[in-house]
Amino acid sequence: MQIRWDEIPAEGIFFRIEDGGWVPRDEVVCQAPPLCTVSLKKEAGRVLFAGTLHLSVVLDCDRCLDSFVYALAEEFEVVFEMLAKEEEAGIAAEHCCKSSELDVVFLAEPVVDVFSVLVQQLYLALPEKRLCSDKCLGLCPECGVNLNRCPCDCTQGTGASPFQILAKLKVQ
Predict the structure, then answer these.
(1) Is the full-model pTM beyond 0.90?
(2) Is residue 166 situated within a structural domain?
(3) Domain annotation covers residue 164
(4) What is the DSSP-derived secondary structure letter of residue 16?
């Protein structure tokens, strides 16, 4: 869904997106249809894009490899601004960002791709370390059994430690 800047009225636009057509199905599995609210407002030559994401995604735990549902509720804001004509010609030129530009997305044409922004915000909201719980025990490094489901019969901890030599250096 693309919205041109000239289509945004002075009071702004507010709408809800209740279908998951924008979700990249080959990378993210949703448990239920997502609910997104989006508002766009023009302000001093910029477009302020604010919204919320509410969806439940199915992730794989990084420790035990089991699937779990992660409830995502995220608020976001993005500021869009047009590139100046002289900047368009020298896009490849070096540019030192000011602190006021760090939260701004510069566009070559006055069109906001709503679904693209939602996908970006979805990826930003996903956890970096995906754990089914904080107390996840993971897999046994010897036999590979999921330690959350049952203990294993491996003889963990009986092997020689590479740090045993350091015990001899300890001053008594």
Answers:
(1) no
(2) no
(3) no
(4) E
Instruction: Give the Cα separation of 37 and 52 in Å (integer).
Output: 5
157 is a domain residue = no
- Each residue's pLDDT tens digit, 50-63: 999 999 999 999 99
DSSP-derived secondary structure for 65-133: --EEEEEEEEEEEEEEEEPPHHHHHTTTS--PPPGGGTTEEEESSSEEEHHHHHHHHHHHHS-SS--S-
Two structure tokens written together for 59:
């992730």
Domains in the chain: how many in total? 1
Close Cβ partners of 170 (under 8 Å, ≥ 6 residues apart): none
For residue 20, tell me if it sits in a domain. Answer: yes
- Domain with 35, as residue range(s), is 2-152
pLDDT of 84-119, one tens digit each? Answer: 655 554 555 566 666 666 677 777 788 888 898 899
